[in-house]
Amino acid sequence: MGKSLIQQKRGKGSPRYRAPSFKYRGKAGFGRYESGKQITAQVLDIVHSSGHSAPLMELKYSSGESGLLQAPEGIRAGDQIEIGENSELKSGNILPLKSIPEGTSIYNIESNPGDGGKFVRTSGVFARIITKADDGIVVELPSSKRRTFMPECMAAVGVLAGSGRTEKPFLKAGTRWFAMTAKNKMWPHVSGTSMNSVSHPFGGRSSHAKGIPTQSARNSPPGRKVGKIAPKRTGRRKR
After folding, report:
1. What is the pTM assigned to this prediction?
2. Strand locations in the chain (E)
3. What's the CATH number of domain 23-166, 1.10.150.130, 2.20.25.10, 3.40.50.2300, 2.30.30.30?
4. What is the C-alpha separation between 163 and 222, in angstroms, rounded?
5. Dihedral angle over CA of 39, 93, 58, 170, nearest 10
6. Which residue, of 141, 193, 215, 223, is most buried by count of CB atoms within 10 Å of its CB?
7. Do the Cβ atoms of 72 and 161 come closer than 8 Å?
8. Average pLDDT per block of 10 residues along the chain, 239 residues long
9. Is residue 172 classed exposed, middle or buried when 0-12, 13-18 and 19+ CB atoms within 10 A define those classes?
Protein backbone atom coordinates (compact mmCIF):
# COMPACT_ATOMS: atom_id res chain seq x y z
CA MET A 1 0.00 0.00 0.00
CA GLY A 2 1.37 3.38 -0.99
CA LYS A 3 1.95 6.10 1.59
CA SER A 4 1.74 9.85 1.17
CA LEU A 5 5.33 10.89 1.84
CA ILE A 6 6.44 14.40 2.76
CA GLN A 7 8.49 14.58 -0.47
CA GLN A 8 5.38 13.82 -2.51
CA LYS A 9 3.29 16.40 -0.66
CA ARG A 10 5.87 19.12 -1.30
CA GLY A 11 6.35 18.18 -4.94
CA LYS A 12 2.61 18.36 -5.60
CA GLY A 13 2.68 22.14 -5.21
CA SER A 14 -0.12 22.62 -2.70
CA PRO A 15 -0.34 26.03 -0.94
CA ARG A 16 0.96 24.52 2.32
CA TYR A 17 4.33 23.78 0.73
CA ARG A 18 4.51 26.49 -1.92
CA ALA A 19 7.31 29.05 -1.57
CA PRO A 20 6.01 32.49 -0.50
CA SER A 21 7.60 34.20 -3.49
CA PHE A 22 5.15 37.11 -3.26
CA LYS A 23 7.18 38.22 -0.21
CA TYR A 24 10.47 38.25 -2.12
CA ARG A 25 11.92 41.53 -3.40
CA GLY A 26 12.35 40.13 -6.90
CA LYS A 27 14.79 38.25 -9.09
CA ALA A 28 18.43 39.10 -8.43
CA GLY A 29 20.86 39.06 -11.33
CA PHE A 30 22.66 41.11 -13.95
CA GLY A 31 20.59 43.40 -16.15
CA ARG A 32 20.64 43.24 -19.91
CA TYR A 33 24.12 43.76 -21.29
CA GLU A 34 25.18 44.08 -24.91
CA SER A 35 28.69 42.90 -25.70
CA GLY A 36 31.10 45.76 -26.32
CA LYS A 37 29.05 48.34 -24.45
CA GLN A 38 30.14 50.05 -21.25
CA ILE A 39 27.37 51.04 -18.84
CA THR A 40 27.19 52.17 -15.22
CA ALA A 41 24.72 51.63 -12.40
CA GLN A 42 24.08 53.51 -9.17
CA VAL A 43 23.37 51.74 -5.89
CA LEU A 44 20.11 53.20 -4.58
CA ASP A 45 19.76 51.14 -1.42
CA ILE A 46 20.79 47.93 0.37
CA VAL A 47 17.71 45.78 1.07
CA HIS A 48 16.82 42.43 2.64
CA SER A 49 14.86 39.71 0.85
CA SER A 50 13.60 36.61 2.65
CA GLY A 51 14.22 34.61 -0.52
CA HIS A 52 17.96 35.40 -0.57
CA SER A 53 20.58 34.76 2.08
CA ALA A 54 22.82 37.67 1.00
CA PRO A 55 21.83 41.35 1.18
CA LEU A 56 20.61 42.80 -2.11
CA MET A 57 21.39 46.18 -3.64
CA GLU A 58 18.88 48.11 -5.70
CA LEU A 59 20.53 49.32 -8.91
CA LYS A 60 19.55 52.06 -11.35
CA TYR A 61 21.31 51.42 -14.68
CA SER A 62 22.39 54.20 -17.03
CA SER A 63 20.10 52.65 -19.64
CA GLY A 64 17.12 53.58 -17.47
CA GLU A 65 16.37 50.08 -16.20
CA SER A 66 16.43 49.06 -12.55
CA GLY A 67 17.20 45.74 -10.93
CA LEU A 68 18.50 43.80 -7.96
CA LEU A 69 21.89 42.18 -7.40
CA GLN A 70 23.63 40.52 -4.48
CA ALA A 71 25.70 43.10 -2.60
CA PRO A 72 29.45 42.62 -2.07
CA GLU A 73 31.32 43.54 1.09
CA GLY A 74 32.10 47.24 1.37
CA ILE A 75 29.38 48.54 -0.95
CA ARG A 76 27.08 51.32 0.22
CA ALA A 77 24.16 53.37 -1.07
CA GLY A 78 25.25 56.04 -3.54
CA ASP A 79 28.20 54.07 -4.96
CA GLN A 80 28.65 53.60 -8.70
CA ILE A 81 29.44 50.27 -10.33
CA GLU A 82 30.65 49.67 -13.88
CA ILE A 83 29.59 46.93 -16.28
CA GLY A 84 31.72 46.01 -19.29
CA GLU A 85 35.03 44.65 -20.50
CA ASN A 86 36.96 47.82 -19.66
CA SER A 87 35.61 48.24 -16.14
CA GLU A 88 37.98 48.83 -13.25
CA LEU A 89 38.83 45.77 -11.14
CA LYS A 90 36.88 47.04 -8.13
CA SER A 91 34.48 45.34 -5.72
CA GLY A 92 30.98 45.34 -7.22
CA ASN A 93 32.01 45.91 -10.83
CA ILE A 94 30.81 43.38 -13.42
CA LEU A 95 33.16 42.07 -16.11
CA PRO A 96 33.38 39.08 -18.46
CA LEU A 97 35.58 36.30 -17.11
CA LYS A 98 38.11 36.81 -19.92
CA SER A 99 38.80 40.35 -18.58
CA ILE A 100 39.32 39.30 -14.94
CA PRO A 101 42.89 38.35 -13.86
CA GLU A 102 43.67 34.98 -12.30
CA GLY A 103 43.28 34.78 -8.52
CA THR A 104 40.57 37.46 -8.36
CA SER A 105 37.63 36.85 -6.01
CA ILE A 106 34.32 36.82 -7.93
CA TYR A 107 30.66 35.92 -7.35
CA ASN A 108 27.36 35.53 -9.26
CA ILE A 109 28.93 33.80 -12.25
CA GLU A 110 26.83 33.24 -15.37
CA SER A 111 26.40 29.65 -16.53
CA ASN A 112 25.75 30.86 -20.08
CA PRO A 113 26.28 34.41 -21.36
CA GLY A 114 23.21 36.53 -20.66
CA ASP A 115 21.46 34.36 -18.05
CA GLY A 116 22.04 36.89 -15.23
CA GLY A 117 24.19 34.71 -12.95
CA LYS A 118 23.68 31.21 -11.54
CA PHE A 119 26.75 30.29 -9.46
CA VAL A 120 28.16 31.62 -6.13
CA ARG A 121 25.21 33.64 -4.82
CA THR A 122 25.11 32.70 -1.11
CA SER A 123 26.12 35.14 1.61
CA GLY A 124 29.81 35.34 2.49
CA VAL A 125 31.11 33.15 -0.37
CA PHE A 126 33.38 33.80 -3.34
CA ALA A 127 35.07 31.93 -6.18
CA ARG A 128 38.51 32.32 -7.72
CA ILE A 129 39.76 32.17 -11.30
CA ILE A 130 42.41 29.47 -11.52
CA THR A 131 43.48 29.23 -15.17
CA LYS A 132 42.50 31.01 -18.36
CA ALA A 133 42.46 29.68 -21.91
CA ASP A 134 40.89 30.76 -25.20
CA ASP A 135 38.19 28.09 -25.09
CA GLY A 136 37.36 28.16 -21.37
CA ILE A 137 38.18 29.61 -17.96
CA VAL A 138 38.58 27.34 -14.94
CA VAL A 139 37.02 28.69 -11.74
CA GLU A 140 37.36 27.21 -8.27
CA LEU A 141 33.95 27.32 -6.58
CA PRO A 142 33.38 27.67 -2.80
CA SER A 143 32.98 23.88 -2.59
CA SER A 144 36.60 23.55 -3.88
CA LYS A 145 35.28 21.97 -7.07
CA ARG A 146 36.51 23.38 -10.35
CA ARG A 147 34.29 24.22 -13.29
CA THR A 148 35.02 25.53 -16.76
CA PHE A 149 33.05 28.56 -17.94
CA MET A 150 32.83 30.31 -21.28
CA PRO A 151 35.10 33.40 -21.51
CA GLU A 152 32.09 35.65 -22.29
CA CYS A 153 30.25 34.76 -19.05
CA MET A 154 29.88 37.76 -16.76
CA ALA A 155 30.82 37.80 -13.07
CA ALA A 156 30.89 40.37 -10.30
CA VAL A 157 34.17 41.22 -8.54
CA GLY A 158 34.41 40.89 -4.77
CA VAL A 159 33.19 38.80 -1.84
CA LEU A 160 29.48 38.51 -1.12
CA ALA A 161 28.24 40.37 1.96
CA GLY A 162 26.60 38.60 4.88
CA SER A 163 29.51 36.39 5.94
CA GLY A 164 29.07 35.03 9.44
CA ARG A 165 25.35 34.44 8.96
CA THR A 166 25.78 30.74 9.73
CA GLU A 167 27.96 31.41 12.79
CA LYS A 168 25.15 32.90 14.90
CA PRO A 169 23.34 30.08 16.75
CA PHE A 170 19.56 29.84 16.59
CA LEU A 171 19.39 28.83 20.28
CA LYS A 172 15.68 27.96 20.11
CA ALA A 173 13.74 25.64 17.85
CA GLY A 174 11.07 28.33 17.48
CA THR A 175 13.57 30.81 16.04
CA ARG A 176 14.77 28.20 13.56
CA TRP A 177 11.17 27.40 12.60
CA PHE A 178 10.39 31.04 11.76
CA ALA A 179 13.60 31.36 9.73
CA MET A 180 12.80 28.25 7.73
CA THR A 181 9.15 29.22 7.25
CA ALA A 182 10.18 32.53 5.67
CA LYS A 183 11.67 30.60 2.74
CA ASN A 184 9.30 27.62 3.11
CA LYS A 185 12.16 25.19 3.67
CA MET A 186 11.35 21.72 4.95
CA TRP A 187 12.16 21.69 8.67
CA PRO A 188 12.50 19.82 10.94
CA HIS A 189 14.06 16.92 9.05
CA VAL A 190 12.56 13.79 10.53
CA SER A 191 14.04 10.37 9.81
CA GLY A 192 11.68 7.89 8.21
CA THR A 193 12.46 5.33 10.92
CA SER A 194 11.19 7.79 13.56
CA MET A 195 7.78 8.16 11.93
CA ASN A 196 4.62 6.16 12.44
CA SER A 197 4.05 3.26 10.11
CA VAL A 198 1.22 5.12 8.39
CA SER A 199 3.55 7.99 7.47
CA HIS A 200 6.55 6.16 6.04
CA PRO A 201 7.56 2.64 4.93
CA PHE A 202 10.41 2.68 7.48
CA GLY A 203 8.18 3.79 10.39
CA GLY A 204 6.44 1.93 13.21
CA ARG A 205 7.46 -0.80 15.70
CA SER A 206 7.80 1.63 18.65
CA SER A 207 11.49 2.34 18.29
CA HIS A 208 13.87 4.46 16.24
CA ALA A 209 16.13 1.78 14.71
CA LYS A 210 14.30 -1.11 13.09
CA GLY A 211 16.96 -2.55 10.87
CA ILE A 212 14.78 -2.36 7.78
CA PRO A 213 16.94 -2.09 4.65
CA THR A 214 16.92 1.34 3.04
CA GLN A 215 17.33 0.15 -0.56
CA SER A 216 14.34 -0.19 -2.88
CA ALA A 217 13.93 -1.99 -6.17
CA ARG A 218 13.61 -0.03 -9.39
CA ASN A 219 10.09 -1.37 -9.94
CA SER A 220 8.80 -0.61 -6.43
CA PRO A 221 5.44 1.19 -6.23
CA PRO A 222 5.43 4.97 -5.54
CA GLY A 223 4.77 4.65 -1.81
CA ARG A 224 7.63 2.19 -1.31
CA LYS A 225 10.28 3.78 -3.54
CA VAL A 226 12.22 5.51 -0.75
CA GLY A 227 15.77 5.36 0.56
CA LYS A 228 18.38 4.09 -1.89
CA ILE A 229 16.67 3.56 -5.24
CA ALA A 230 18.09 0.45 -6.93
CA PRO A 231 21.65 0.92 -5.64
CA LYS A 232 24.50 -0.46 -7.71
CA ARG A 233 26.00 -2.04 -4.61
CA THR A 234 25.19 -2.39 -0.91
CA GLY A 235 27.18 -3.18 2.21
CA ARG A 236 30.63 -2.06 3.24
CA ARG A 237 33.24 -1.66 0.59
CA LYS A 238 36.09 -4.15 0.87
CA ARG A 239 39.59 -2.76 0.58
Report:
1. 0.80
2. 39-47, 56-61, 66-70, 80-83, 94-96, 105-107, 127-132, 137-140, 146-149, 154-157, 215-216, 228-229
3. 2.30.30.30
4. 41
5. 170
6. 193
7. yes
8. 72 81 91 81 94 94 92 95 92 94 96 94 96 93 96 96 93 94 85 83 77 81 83 75
9. exposed
